[in-house]
Write a structure and sequence with these properties.
This protein is of the alpha/beta class and 191 residues long. It has 5 helices and 7 strands; from the N terminus they run βαβαββαβββαα. α1 packs across α5.
Length: 191
């Protein structure tokens, strides 16, 4: 079975393919000839994931899934949330996003946060949704070279390392995306 993962983020595709093994063939946006920026106008992660998946399904006619992920920091009322990728504005930059977040948390002892991923899957005319959440805290400085996004400053509960210090396999076992992908894979395996 071939299905498109509606993202341009190569790291996300690598993480998902690592979880899937050979059970499905994952096509990227480039594989299907999609070069445009996908719409993300929703006020929630769920709305954005569905909007991206529906766009690809409608325009390219291929079954697909899309995700949206947000980092929700409790001391900031859940921010940056749905705006995680563009928290520091344009042009998008992981470094600038982390700088701004660390600045906003400077001097605060309350640093609890969670990553939330929502996958929307469109098969034919049906829509399905899968969610994963990883609880943790924001560190005071960057640590680690792996991962992407906020990984160098997010330490998951029960770990003494940030996501960026973990191997891809270690991260996938406990991450928000790994949890959501396993739910997606389980669902697809029952078709």
């Amino acid at each position: 079975m071939k299905i498109c993962f509606a993202t341009n983020n190569k790291k996300k595709i690598e993480e998902v393919v690592a979880e899937l093994g050979s059970s499905l063939t994952i096509l990227s946006l480039a594989d299907i000839g999609c070069t445009e920026e996908l719409p993300e106008t929703g006020a929630t992660l769920e709305a954005n994931a569905l909007e991206k998946a529906q766009y690809v399904k409608d325009k390219y006619g291929i079954d697909c899934f899309a995700d949206d992920t947000g980092l929700e920091v409790y001391a900031l009322g859940g921010a940056p949330g749905v705006y995680s990728g563009r928290f520091a504005g344009e042009p998008r930059s992981d470094q600038r996003n982390m700088d701004l977040l660390l600045k906003k948390l400077d001097g605060l002892t309350e640093r609890k946060a969670r990553f939330k991923t929502v996958f929307s899957l469109i098969l034919g005319s049906n829509h399905y949704s899968f969610e994963g959440i990883a609880e943790g805290e924001i560190t005071t400085e960057r640590s680690g070279e792996g991962g992407f996004g906020y990984d160098p400053i997010f330490k998951p509960n029960g770990m003494d390392k940030t996501f960026a210090e973990l191997s891809m396999q270690e991260k996938n076992e406990i991450s928000h995306r790994g949890m959501a992908v396993r739910k997606l894979i389980y669902f697809l395996s029952k078709l």
